[in-house]
Structure formats: structure tokens, C-alpha cells
Design brief:
The protein is of the alpha+beta class. It is about 25% helix and about 30% strand. It has eight helices and twelve strands. Strands 4, 5, 6, 7, 8, 9 and 10 form a seven-stranded antiparallel beta sheet that branches. A three-stranded parallel beta sheet has the order 11-3-12. A hairpin with a 4-residue loop joins strand 9 and strand 10.
Length: about 270
């Protein structure tokens, strides 16, 4: 009985009859009535759909159809920064694939550097930092979250645009160099795969059972004296992102059918 219900629900999902426009599936009670089945039978049917990644559940909200996502490919070739303003680079890369990009205006805060951010920037826990946070979308689907942290002393020394909730057209790294003479000459990347936190799960509409992890990229930029000048943390949901690392001599037409996003440090809004 549960298998028959599951197959019927699968056909309705694949035809678009159920789960349209982000609406949840009928409730357990509604399914019990519709199929004249017990609660356990309905639950077994839904579990079967979950294990096949057709639907996912969110506590207190219901069961939803797993959206069909066309993954976006980000390529890192280890080359120096291109000089493009990040939102322009992101816009071009996405539009090259005939898709629609969107980047939110930065949310800017001044906060105490505690723990991780203080360690990354080599500053004391009681010092303050400026954070610039943005959301990225492709085809109105959440693609990534990004937050960059800078020492507040940069603002005190004259780089006041860092604290303003507006984009920096030339890129924040270039702006810091022009205003303060602090040039980014290198960076380190660290990738971590982990379960999403509550904010990420909600923003990316991920299942709350943690079976879809996120990839967290921590990029720390260093100046000519080897001192960290910023740390950028970007979170990507793993169900809609792919990463290609290319080094050395690679045929130019490799991945030519994919639009790729530059990942050089000066190419990021808010950095």
C-alpha cells in the first residue's frame, strides 16, 4: 500500500501537479484521507520519496518537493587578480550561461573580533572589525553567502567607505591599496565541508536533517609585510555548486561549455 502511494505521489511530483511554486505537499492527515491509509503507511510512502531525494521535510513547515537545480561551476586557476569589480565578474560569468545573476547590497556592521576572526586577522579579541555581508542569487535561487571582515583601524585611518552600506565599484581590496597603501600580495584558501547552520538552511531552503552539506571557503588576504588585511568567508550549498581547480597548461576549450566565475581576491564585492 505504501509503495502504491509513493509511486502515485512520485508521478504527481514529476508531472508538476504537486509541489508547484514552492508549496508543500499535502499534510499527513490530508494524505491519509486521500488514500484511505493509516498514518504509518503514509509516513512510509513519504520516507521512500525522501530517500530518493524527491522531497525533503522541514520541521514545523511540511514536506516539499526537492527543487531541480542546475549547478553553477566556479573555476579557480590560481592566477593573480583580474582587476574586475566582483559584481561585474559575477554578472558576466552567470549571463554567459544565459542565466540571471543578482547580488544584494552589502549589510555592514562594526563588531568585536572574537575567536576565529581575531585569529584570522592576527588581532586581539577586544579589537573591532568591520563586516560586509552579501547574498548572491542565480535565477533567483540562493547561490552563496559571503562575509568579509576588515580591521576597524582601516576605517579610522581613512578608508571610510568600508563602513558604508554600499558597493565599492573598484573593489575593496583595490580601495584599501589606494587609500592606505596596503597592497594584497597573496592569499590562502581553506575549504571546509560541514552541515548548514539554521540561518543557512533557511536561506538556501535546505533539508533540516543535514543531508545536504555546505562548502565553506575561508580566504585570508595578506599584505606586503605578511600581515592579514581581510578574511572572507563564503558559504556554498553543495547541491547547486561545483568547483573546478585548474593549474598549469590546460586546453583552453576545457570546460568551455560551462560559464565559470573568477575567484581572484579582488573580484569580490565587499573585499
Amino acid at each position: 500500500m505504501w509503495r502504491q502511494i509513493a509511486e502515485d505521489l512520485r508521478m504527481k511530483i514529476e508531472s508538476g501537479e504537486l509541489g508547484r511554486d514552492g508549496e508543500p505537499l499535502p499534510t499527513e492527515l490530508e494524505l491519509q484521507v486521500a488514500y484511505r491509509a493509516s498514518r504509518n503507511t503514509v509516513r512510509d510512502a513519504v520516507k521512500w520519496l525522501v530517500t530518493r531525494n524527491l522531497v525533503y521535510t522541514r520541521s514545523g513547515q511540511g514536506t516539499f518537493v526537492q527543487p531541480k537545480v542546475d549547478p553553477f561551476v566556479t573555476r579557480d586557476n590560481g592566477q593573480p587578480e583580474s582587476g574586475k569589480e566582483e559584481s561585474t565578474a559575477f554578472d558576466i560569468a552567470v549571463r554567459d550561461r544565459c542565466r540571471a545573476p543578482r547580488v544584494s547590497s552589502p549589510r555592514v556592521e562594526s563588531l568585536r573580533a572574537e575567536g576565529r576572526y581575531a585569529r584570522e586577522l592576527h588581532i586581539a579579541d577586544d579589537e573591532s572589525v568591520v563586516s560586509r555581508h552579501q547574498q548572491r542569487f542565480i535565477d533567483d535561487v540562493p547561490y552563496s553567502l559571503q562575509t568579509t571582515f576588515y580591521p576597524l583601524t582601516f576605517v579610522e585611518r581613512g578608508a571610510v567607505r568600508l563602513i558604508r552600506a554600499e558597493n565599492i565599484p573598484e573593489g575593496a581590496v583595490k580601495y584599501i591599496e589606494d587609500i592606505l597603501g596596503i597592497k594584497q600580495v597573496g592569499w590562502t584558501d581553506r575549504y571546509t565541508v560541514r552541515q548548514p547552520d539554521a540561518v543557512e538552511a533557511t536561506f538556501f531552503s535546505l533539508p533540516d536533517d543535514g543531508r545536504v552539506p555546505v562548502v565553506e571557503l575561508t580566504r585570508t588576504g595578506y599584505d606586503q609585510d605578511g600581515v592579514p588585511l581581510r578574511v572572507t568567508i563564503t558559504t556554498f550549498p553543495s547541491d547547486r555548486n561545483e568547483f573546478v581547480m585548474q593549474y598549469g597548461q590546460v586546453p583552453e576549450d576545457e570546460w568551455a561549455d560551462e560559464a565559470v566565475q573568477p575567484t581572484s581576491p579582488s573580484d569580490r564585492t565587499g573585499e
